[in-house]
Specification:
This protein has about 120 residues and is of the alpha+beta class. The protein has a single domain, classed as HIT-like (HIT family, subunit A, 2-Layer Sandwich), CATH 3.30.428. The chain is built from 5 helices and 5 strands, in the order H-E-E-E-H-H-H-E-H-E. The protein has a 5-stranded antiparallel β-sheet with strand order 1-2-3-5-4. The longest helix is centred in the middle third of the chain and has 17 residues. It is globular, with a radius of gyration of 14 Å. Bound molecules: guanosine-5'-monophosphate. Guanosine-5'-monophosphate binds next to strand 2.
Length: about 120
């Protein structure tokens, strides 16, 4: 799948669309989800153009992967998510329910999140 430079997160990265920023460094941008599913719902996206986890894990450099994962941890700590626990979600592709085709990790916290996957 080729990367679509007009996807909503690409526009946020370019500053064409605003976001409620939590953290930004050379490798990642973190901001609050516009439609939160928990009291704390953040998104962390890599700065590079990767469609999904599949794309990122296959093509990103070791440095990008390391620094991105460290950034996810930093954001979670900044939001105090480790205190009572949290969940990371990376939806990928059609069956994964991915809506925005720029790799992102959801950080959800602030309430009991229930079962890992909804019943079919
Ligand atoms: P996905 O379903 O692709 O894993 O998650 C995409 C997420 O992006 C959704 O939770 C949705 O609420 C969020 N989202 C979509 N458009 C925007 C936007 O313009 N700004 C922000 N902050 N979040 C968005």
């Amino acid at each position: 799948m080729t990367y679509d430079r007009n996807n909503i997160f690409a526009k946020i990265l370019r500053g064409d669309i605003p976001c409620k920023k939590i953290l930004e460094n050379d490798y990642a941008l973190a901001f609050y989800d516009i439609n939160p599913q928990a009291p704390t719902h953040a998104l962390v996206i890599p700065k590079g153009e990767y469609v999904s986890f599949d794309d990122f894990s296959a093509k990103a450099s070791n440095e990008e992967i390391t620094m991105f994962i460290r950034s996810v941890g930093e954001v979670a700590r900044q939001l105090n998510a480790p205190m009572d626990g949290f969940r990371l979600i990376a939806n990928a592709g059609l069956n994964g329910g991915q809506e925005v085709p720029h790799f992102h990790i959801h950080i959800l916290a602030g309430r009991r999140l229930g079962r890992m996957v909804a019943a079919a």
